Amino acid sequence: MSTHKNASSDAAQPSIDYGIDRKQLKTVKERFLQVNAVRLERTQQALSDRQQVFLQLLPLLFHVNHPMLPGYVSHQTPFGVSHYTPSKEQQLAATKLARSFTYRFQPPVGQQIHGLFLMGSCGTVAQSDRSDIDIWVCHSSDVDQEGLLQLRQKCDKISAWAMSIGVEAHCFLMDSEKFKQGERANLSGEDCGSSQHFLLLDEFYRTGLLLAGRIPIWWLCPPEQESRYQDYVDTLIKKRFIPADDSLDFGNVGQIPAGEFVGAGIWQLYKGIDSPYKSTLKILLSEVYADQYPNIEPLSTGFKRAIYNKQLDVNELDPYVMVFRKLEQYLIGRNELARLELIRRCFYFKVGKALSRPQTHNVKSWQRQLLEKLTSEWQWPREHIHSLDAKDKWKVARVIAEQKDIVRELTNSYRFLLDFARRTQATALINSADMTLLGRKLYAAFERKAGKVEWINPGISNSLAEDRLNFYYVDSPASGNSYWGVSTEPLLAKDTEQHDPLKRGDHLIGLLVWCHFNGLLSSHTRCNIVNGAHDVGEFELLNLIRALQKTLPIASQYTDHGDQADTQFSRPMRPTLLQLFINISTDPLSSMRNQGIERLSDQTDSLSYSGMRENLVLNIEQVLVNSWGELITRRYDGESALLRCLRDYLQMIPPGSNKALPTLEIHCFCASRAAAISHRVEELFSDIAACYHGGNKPANSRYVLKVQHDYYILQFNEQQPTIENMGEYSDMLDYLAGNISGKQTQFSPLVFDRHCQSNNPVAALSPYMQAGNIQVFYLCQQHKADIYIIDELGVLNHFSAPCLDKNNFLTPLDLFLQSTLFRQNNETIDTQGDLNTLPQDNIKNVDYYEIINKKSGYTIIRNNPINHEGCPSFFNVQAIGSRDNNGLLLFTIYCDQKEFSEQEYGEQLYNAVAQHILQRRQSKERYPCYITDLDLSLSNEKSGDSTPTNRYLFYKKRLEQALNAALLQV
């Protein structure tokens, strides 16, 4: 008896154990439809007359395919909305759009659109005429791929028509059977993709409005039967309590998997980029659910419980009010009142009804009445409401404070969810592609790193533009404090140190970029520079600002969630724009002027200026924009500023990476030679880019430039650029010959900067360098020959010789080189086999070139090979190198077959050889002798290695220097 009494006492609680009452089912359905009808009416009331037409016609547009109605694709497009017949008003509205339209009855058989649902803020306290409308277009599972394609096209066309009448509508194709199985679309700007399923279903059941079609069967499953949901709804269908074609089954919310909360957290952080207040509410809801795990009662279940208990106050059932009440209860329970105050602000801003402003209609809207009731509960004073209602006009200080509160709340909730995931060993239910995309967008918008310009206004204020900005520099040696600051208040130099700026920065460009990026700088902003310990004038300041405003993006890019933005974030980040500002607050010639020095020569190169060879690039402030929308600033100081900036530029995109170089802008507005300096730096960057990315030179090319008195060499090592100081010209020659360690294993051409080519024979010969051959260049001047030998790897060796007759040094040199080639070929045969199998490109030639010094510069002339016929015989000096037991390289020298070994003579080796040579010379003259043959086959530390030519030349030069020094002494 007691059981029967309990069952009958609650008419809206049918039990599967004791039978299902059709009347009770009808009652529950009517209650849901009653609440649905009120919310649909509220949805219409929030729209303008033109916008109401969209909602009025939406079911009809999916019900028929008519060529003159919006959305038409073809007659084969899936159509026909279940249980829908257009009203006379809807038919009349359709004829106003298409006069030829006449509705013809559509038989229910074959109807392929099972339901149309409005999602989001429709009919809620947060709806306004600016709210977008999300539409679930629920179609039959029988629709094939071609049908889905056409239906997608129809949705897009309907959305486009909606936009033309002021409605932002997003249609989502939904297959209830596939959704129930967990099949979801990939992530897009308006769709949470794979990050959540049951949370989305929870939101659908408590916010979705049935516009036309079948009801959700979830309505008819009592809250107490949620754990037996599938059995219950199967019984409803099998026992024909409801017809099979009367309902849609998306499944039940059930036990939300722990991993969804983490995915939802990531998604809401992402949505917080442009909807911070809504996202803060939603991510905290995920935190509340996670805190209640595993005993969660989702809001949708609470909503349904209220319907079953006949609690039909539509205001209390409002989805946003229900969310707020749940969050309020949670935060009060934790005594987190500061968070509660932020949540109240989020709710207030999301509703968007400014209570301090007069109402526009005679009768208060239900939303305004509800919000007044809530703010009265919160005991908000009128001044506080006035301040909140002025949010669109908030300026920097207030926006920064609000942004910090929002970001702190979003990140704290996300950390809570991550900790929850660790405790429950849950994995975020979001696929790797979506995770990567969201992660990159979040990284770009919120991640802090050195030099990155912070975004302070994520959807808080409409505009941060200021009428006036004053920039000033503080340099206080006593406190060790030096920085740039910006203020909206007028300032004198004496007041700057005590002033609290809106923003401070280490360098001026970083501060200007921050102001531009965050919208403080507009076309109407008046900018002023306060006098102080700096050299920036109004002219320089205004030119810097113009250059930034002309090219740099502003922070609104973060809110662009279109296909183009998704494409950028689907790829690794790459630099897209590089701005360099040279010599800010610096006159590079001031020190020369102070000393009374003017330009002492015709040297106009900005990197080696005047007879003093001054480097006029003293500092560089850099702005980098990347493909993810980040702006990063950096300053380079000192005489090496340009070289460090250049190295970092090359490191961005190494040669061979098949990525486009960033657009480069060079600016200089200093007091002296600004145009020449910017042109020189732009020219240098352009030439280096052409060298490494032009496709005409190998990636391992060596680029040589001159700064002040010194030469620098730039090259890539394992995709990393290095720049080394080679010293002055003679030091450079030693450096370029210094491959004795064998670091250089492939041919590497030398490319000289265009300003290094005057009075530089190495620069003149560098274009003639060829891989695989030995090239000898000689320059005869004033009875002395400078000889430059380029080996098969591009290593340069230099030495000098008397030049009474060029054959005197060329013939022994050629004998040596031919002997070296013979030995190298033998080494190759030893390691590779028969001579017949030796690759032809391993057989090297020796080419000779003469360098002629003319007034116009150096000229290179190719010479014939050395002809040994008729040349005087030479005294053969052969050296053989081998390593002792300690690994030291020792030499044995043969003079006309007489042996002199280092083991025998020790330090007196070269004196002994010199004495022997002098004894053989009839004239006893002490002219130079040359090594004509050198064997290094036993000198290699690794067996089987072929000895490169530059190593032969290195030891030849060392031996000859020692012998010739001994000849002068004995």
Automatic annotation (TrEMBL):
Q: Please name the GO terms that the record assigns under molecular function.
A: adenylate cyclase activity
Q: List GO BP terms, alphabetically.
A: cAMP biosynthetic process
Domain of life, per lineage: Bacteria
**Boundaries of every Adenylate cyclase class-I N-terminal domain copy:** 24-219
The name under which this protein is listed is Class I adenylate cyclase
Species per Swiss-Prot/TrEMBL record: Dasania phycosphaerae
